[in-house]
Amino acid sequence: xxxxxxxxxxxxxxxxxxxxxxxxxxxxxxxxxxxxxxxxxxxxxxxxxxxxxxxxxxxxxxxxxxxxxxxxxxxxxxxxxxxxxxxxxxxxxxxxxxxxxxxxxxxxxxxxxxxxxxxxxxxxxxxxxxxxxxxxxxxxxxxxxxxxxxxxxxxxxxxxxxxxxxxxxxxxxxxxxxxxxxxxxxxxxxxxxxxxxxxxxxxxxxxxxxxxxxxxxxxxxxxxxxxxxxxxxxxxxxxxxxxxxxxxxxxxxxxxxxxxxxxxxxxxxxxxxxxxxxxxxxxxxxxxxxxxxxxxxxxxxxxxxxxxxxxxxxxxxxxxxxxxxxxxxxxxxxxxxxxxxxxxxxxxxxxxxxxxxxxxxxxxxxxxxxxxxxxxxxxxxxxxxxxxxxxxxxxxxxxxxxxxxxxxxxxxxxxxxxxxxxxxxxxxxxxxxxxxxxxxxxxxxxxxxxxxxxxxxxxxxxxxxxxx
Length: 468
Fold this sequence. Notes:
The chain has helices at 224-233, 252-259, 285-291, 326-337, 365-373; strands at residues 24-26, 31-32, 36-40, 44-49, 62-67, 70-79, 86-94, 107-112, 134-138, 146-150, 159-166, 173-176, 186-191, 198-199, 211-215, 238-241, 270-271, 303-307, 310-314, 342-346, 378-381, 387-390, 406-410, 427-431, 436-442, 446-453, 461-466. By secondary structure, the chain is mainly beta. It folds into 2 domains: 24-199, Jelly Rolls (Sandwich), CATH 2.60.120; 211-466, Metallo-dependent phosphatases (Purple Acid Phosphatase, chain A, domain 2, 4-Layer Sandwich), CATH 3.60.21.10. Strands 4, 5, 6, 8, 9, 11 and 12 form a 7-stranded antiparallel beta sheet that branches. Strands 18-19-20-21-23-22-24 form a 7-stranded mixed beta sheet, with helices on one face. Helix 2 packs across helix 3 (285-291) and helix 4 (326-337) runs parallel beside helix 5. The longest helix has 12 residues, at 326-337. Mean pLDDT is 88; it is low at 1-34 and 194-207.
């Protein structure tokens, strides 16, 4: 099974149990707790495979356990800030949302004495021993589901702790790693002497609003892409890219050397769009081979998906965008079929921009027109290496507060900054120096945005809008 999978990020409610017996159950109810609980995510996680004895999987979005091929999974947590006695510890893990992630055995979970291993150094030939007491086990597991294991024996206070997982089943299980964001493993520590948490069948809070975060013009030989990747480490949700994923030419080597060590660790939750530098390699084969199914149908470069109440469309400004093109005809049919009340689109070359390096791109006008005709809310592009936000506009660039689409240029993903030229009408916010990511929180009937700058930068921009 591939170690890089597309997953639907699903957040489900949790139940914390303090039973002494080893238990494993699908989580379907929220906790009603009087004792204090603290949740920790892994500081490291990885797996090893005997079929790839010298390969490190530390940046994979997936964690595997299996008996054939033999896979072993490792988790490390740093627990801090506890001031009361520990009364229960629960491990929550989420199965991958791909065929084959399910298993008749979710694995056996054991403590480990080694807490100094590095997720980027562990291989089958150089793996820590799974040498401690058995903490718990999981029986049959399904795909795209949260599970819990009572691991109370793991710890009694603050410190760093490791868990190793093995399986005796030849039909192994696959879990989401910490690179997955919202579905990363969790260690829930209960402290205090009050009544234990217990499941409530009547409380089931709605999951949080989906987050879509990203930028364009990303990875090169500099350091700004590392800084923006560090921002993504702390932001859960789906990652988008607005083209020019890697420089200079989008080759397989460029992706391996520049993108993979930075934004590549979020590949499992990334839905990309291509740019002109990606197409410097004929047919953008480096791009399509690297992202695989995450980039939609191979070679086409446009696709759609849903997040909450939002229909999301990733488009391709590097192929024909005429009104009669296959892409625009597909876009109109796709928008007509959508049942979601809100629509968000992204691609590389901006229809509207004040950047001095690249002029506004009129060729993408038919895509803008189609989105306007179907009452879309947001368009994000890149190409100019800067940040710019426009007021809601019609396809001609006129202010339209009733049906207008808000356009963003988010080309600040890591490549060197560009300057501004003539400021275009309805440009409301601009910055040409700060690298960062653009974070959207997608509400049921609206959205909010936030420019998140890299460490050492102070520029900020935020606001909100409503769905049409």
